[in-house]
Amino acid sequence: MAPFQITGAAVVDGSGRDPVDVTVTIEDGRITQLGASGAHGERFDAGGLTMTPGLIDAHVHLGLSSPIQPQFSFRISAAEIAADIFATAGATLDAGFTTVRDTGGIDGGVVTTIAKGKVRGPRVLSCGPVQCQTGGHGYYGADWEPTELWSSHHVPGLCALSMMSGNADELRSNVREAFRRGASFLKLCVTGGVVGAHDKLTDTQFTVEEIAVAVQEAAARGTYVTVHAHNNEGIRNAVEAGVRCVEHGTDLDESTATLMATREVALVPTFAVVEQLLHDTAGAGLGESTRDRVLGVRERMTEALAVAKEAGVRIGLGSDLIGPAQDRRGEELKLRAELETPMEALVAATKTNAEILGLSSQVGVIAPGMQADLVLWNGNPLEDPKLFADPANAVLVVQAGRVVKDLR
């Protein structure tokens, strides 16, 4: 790749420091210098634009890019599901997100296809299928359908939502299978969920001993477990078992937040999906009963965010969008900016998320030696965070030194 420089932008480096006007030099896919450089190559004049690191979404579901209920009831072909997945991957990149952590729904072939450059998309870390308790959150088969038939809903190499375990031995077998199929971390559902078919938010799923089996298997591979968890008992069980991250955390209380901070367990709140399900349940391909389940979740999740922040928990950022409407992924930053500051939302979506994903030596900040994942925004999203929500405002996106979107 030919070297190039970007000049004139207000550079927000992702660390939380104030913006600076500095030239950024990129060579061989990496940032080599901040400041004046004698490097040859093209110069991009970015006067009037704001540069940030490429955004990171720590909670996505690329494999749930089709309407949910039709997908799980075999009313959508594999070809259409694939088209929806890859369209969402491209839209994610266009929204300024150069890295995502897929927390359930895709099989390994999607990660490989995007990594090979055969379709446009962000860098993807995937858990493969979510690990779920038999009959718990993540199972969407019909009431009459035997559990063992659920895996027939998977399309190998494309989509695989979840695997069911009735005991610790089955869970150990299933997580080993997930790793065999390319998972880079594990996700367990330890409580019921909002988009649930056979569970309630107050349900607690998997025992501490069962969760610990997944933690043991992940540690043996040098990786970690994150958990879908809404109620406090499920969160505490997971933390006691040794997980490294909690998704959602809706009913997190002060004592459990303190325990999370002590054990360095991160939290990834997910506000955008709550807004999505409150205002466009049908658009996600879900019934109106889902709207009833989500009532009150945003208020409780907002309180949990404040509790976690007070306790000193590392707090990342994830959108959790589902269904076809995943093009405005930056809504999560806009929503978080209403609860914190725009700078705090940006740091969560860059530096902090990179730490949570284990990528802090590669991405998340603009600094020499880091991969050149950059976004140029039309305006200043720190002054107007609504800019994050509209992909049209991401006028230039650079991923690993390659310009993958250019609207200048």
Automatic annotation (TrEMBL):
Pfam families per record: Amidohydro_1
Species in which this protein is naturally found: Saccharopolyspora elongata
Annotated keywords: Hydrolase
Amidohydrolase-related domain mapped to chain residues: 50-404
GO molecular function, one term: hydrolase activity, acting on carbon-nitrogen (but not peptide) bonds
Protein name according to UniProt: Amidohydrolase family protein
InterPro entries the record matches: Amidohydro-rel, Metal-dep_hydrolase_composite, Metal_Hydrolase, Metallo-dep_Hydrolase, OTAase-like
